[in-house]
Each structure stands twice: as structure tokens, then as C-alpha cells.
């Protein structure tokens, strides 16, 4: 490799690497932006999801608490229960029966354990309790935070709290206890204590978890842990205290932020439940919540690295295998640009470059062939133009000759011949005028037919009455040129010629219809039998037979007007023949003309 070529290739490789890095930078920023946006989206979706779950949780908890409060108020105010508690001679059996009866009376769908702690210290329940369970229940109630400040004669206050289960063996997790003073006539009779199954609230908390690794718990307004989905109460108690401090700093009823807990980052979300004076807290490991985003980041970085590496290797091989040999061919291309197409590439070596050389040679051969073809076509085009100009001389010659004949006839005072020559001149002028135009106004066709009928009257030596029943709106509707002439010619030569039973009348009717333009060409000539009419219909449909002009008209109308074009042939012997056409009109055709 020559030094100049080597240096050029080297700098191209370096330039490509730099360009690749520059192009990769926007991709890196794009990936970072995508990760940031996705993280924000995840945060928003996470908060929305948690908010919806909390709304559902709050609704159910409020429903539970309202039902428990209604139940406790109704039961504590029951006269029969107050009578039994005032009766010093009551038995345990009577109290159990009364509790069960009242539980059925004030039926509640929530599964409850109903207890009454009488003022004298006795414990009554809707199911049997042993002494240890009674003592543990009494101890649990005494340890409630509100117990010391409880005003026993206040029958309006309603307490709720969470504590461990007093049963043997105890159920894991804290139970919800609802308490209500039983007061009658200003006298404290006891305390109604309702214990709700822990599984109900636990299911609500589990349903509110965003992921399996999420921890959720409820705490009161002082930061005391009430109930949690995680049974590690020591860690959760500290978490609830820290959460209360965060909530106090935020001074908002809900919020979210990232916190450190158990040695790792967590997404902290809280929502105050105002009606219950509780706060719902949810802690989700950050790596779990953003696992998909982190995977996207890693995949993006790896993809960018390998893309840059592959691009560098590819460009290096491209330079060594193709660029340097192509530089040797650049001179040939410059010669091609100046129009020197006689040179050819001679190269032996790399297979790909050999294929390229062969392709360039073949391309040069084709270009030369194409140039020669273009030159030949240009010569032919000029020849055709000369022929076209020559062909225009013939119509002018014919028209000039007819004018000379008309003057000769006028000198001879042969008026019928003069009229015939005038009509023939007009016929030829219309036929030769603008031969490239396919459509023309109906009025031009009618003018042409007048001259044609006048000319045919002179030919067949027979007068023909031409009746035109044309609506004014139809005169400018475009139809294919030379549409009426074959039909009129058919009426004259097959209907009138050699038939003298009555005066020959040819009627052309044009009117607007639902399909567009309805055109009828009728005569009162000899007509046709039913068999002859059917035979003519077949000839027109198959474009065969003697009536080739009629078939041509029908085919041209079909091609120009489309599938909506309709044609009908009606004829009766000794009565006449009628050709009926329904020609569609495109919107705007009349205005265009």
C-alpha cells in the first residue's frame, strides 16, 4: 500500500471512530432520558396504583368501623343487657345467652368475639373462656393507651386499638379491639369489647401491596404501630416512628419519597386516613420497583458499546478491502463524468472489487448502447413529426377542393349540389378538428348531425325531417365524439332508404335522468322483427357482423363512461327503431364545459 493511500485510509478510520462516538452521544443521552422518563412514569403509576388501593382500603375499613360502632352502640344501649348487668343474682349462663341473643338481634356480617367486662370484674363472652384467657383479656384491655383516661360514665366514646390475641394458642399478628362503655341511668355497668379477626385486615393490607417484597402497615397519629403485613414488629415499630417523623416534616396528608431502611433504598409512600386517625404506610424496595428500568439501562449501555466496537471493526475491514482499491478507480470515474466512455476497468484481486469492475464495465456498455438507442429514437421521432405535418396537408387539400367544387356548383346554379357540398365541408371540418380530443359537447354533435342529414338527403334524394327534442341543460354535457353519426347513418340506410310508405322522420331526444343523460335516437322507418332485433343485439355485443359502426359506438361509450352506462335497442317492423342510451355524468362535467 502506498504511503499516501495508507495515511488517507488511516485518517478515514479515525474520522469514522470520532463520528461514531459523536453519533453515540445523543443515543446515550436518549437512553438516559428514557430511563428518567420511565422512572417518573413508574413513580406516577406506582403512586396512582397505591392511591387507588388505599382508597379501597379506607372505604372498607370505614365500612367495618361504622358497622362495629353501630353494633356496639346498639348492644351497649340494650335494656335487657342493662337489666342483667344491674341484677346481682345473674348467672354466667344468663349472660352468655343474652350476648348470643343480642348478637343475633344486632346481626353483623363481620366475624366477632363479643365480651363484656362487668363493673365488678367478671368477664362474659359469647364463647367459653378459661381462666388464663380471661386474665389475658383483662390485662390486654388494661394496657390500652386510652384506659387510664377513660371516663366510665361517658356512653358516647368509641375506642379502637390493636393488640395481641389473648386466646390459647394465640393467633399471630395483632387483633382489632373495639370498646364501648355500657352506661344506664348514669351508672357504669361494664365495658363492651369486640374482637375482630386479624385475617380480615391482613387480607386488606396484602391486597394493597404493590409487590411481594412490599411492606405495608398502619400506625396511629403518634407513630405507634397498629398492624402490619410483616410480622417483624421490632423493625416495623422503628419504621413507624421514622415514618411519623417524615410525615410531620412534610405536613401533608399523603406523599412519597426514597428512604433508607434495612440497609437499602425503599420507596416510601404514606396516606393519612382522617376518619380513623390512622396512617397507611407502604415500603417497596427500589430495586424491585425499577428493575425493568435498570435492565433497560444495562442493555442500552451494552448495546452502545458493542455497536461502536462492531462499527469500528467493520469500517477497518471496509477500508482495507474496498476503499483503497476504489481509490485507484476514481480516475476512471472522472473520465466517465467528462463523457469518455471508451475506457474499461482491468482489475484482478479481491473478489468483491472484481465484481464491481465487471459491473462498471457492463454499465458502460449499456450506457453506450442506450446512447445509440436514444439517438436512433430521436431520428425516428423527427421523421414521425415530418410525417404528421405531411398528413395534415391532406385534410386541408380535401377541404380546399370541396370549396372549389362548391364555387363551381354555384356558377352552374345547382343549389342542391351546393347545399350538399356545404354540408360535406362542415362534416369534414368537424371530423378533422382536434382529433386528439375524445369528448365534446352534445351541442357540437347535434350541429354535426344537421349537416350530415342534409348531406344524406342529397345522396338518397329523399327528404328527412330531423326533430331535435333537447333539454337546455343537456346541450353542454360532454359525450364521446362521433357518437350520434353511426346511429343516424343506421336509421337512414336501414330505415329510410328504399322505403316510401310514409314521410321519413328522425327524432333525437336528450333529457336529464336519474342516471345522468338519457339519449334516444328513433326513426319511423321499416323497423325490424323480433328475431332481427335479437340478432342485431348479439352483433353489437360481440362487435361482429355488418353493423360494426353501432358496436363501435356502444364499446366506446362503455370504455369512456364505465359500468354505469346502459344501452337498449327497441324495434318493431313497419313502425320504426329506437336506440336508447343512459350515459352517467360525473360531478362538475357541465360546469367544466
TrEMBL record:
Recorded topology in the membrane: Multi-pass membrane protein
Keyword Lyase tagged: no
Top-rank lineage group of the source organism: Bacteria
Gene3D superfamilies, per database record: 6.10.340.10, Histidine kinase-like ATPase, C-terminal domain, PAS domain
GO cellular component: plasma membrane
Domain HAMP: 320-372
SMART domains, sorted: HAMP (SM00304)
Coiled coil spans: 360-394
Pfam families for the chain: dCache_1, HAMP, HATPase_c, His_kinase
Transmembrane spans: 299-318
InterPro entries with a match to the protein in the record: Bact_2-comp_sensor_kinase, dCache_1, HAMP_dom, HATPase_C_sf, HATPase_dom, Sig_transdc_His_kin_internal
Record's subcellular location: Cell membrane
Keyword Mitochondrion applies: no
CDD domains cross-referenced by the UniProt entry: HAMP
UniProt entry keywords in alphabetical sequence: ATP-binding, Cell membrane, Coiled coil, Kinase, Membrane, Nucleotide-binding, Phosphoprotein, Transferase, Transmembrane, Transmembrane helix, Two-component regulatory system
PANTHER family with a match to the protein in the record: SENSOR HISTIDINE KINASE YPDA (PTHR34220), SENSOR PROTEIN KINASE HPTS (PTHR34220:SF11)
UniProt protein name: HAMP domain-containing protein
Species in which this protein is naturally found: Paenibacillus beijingensis
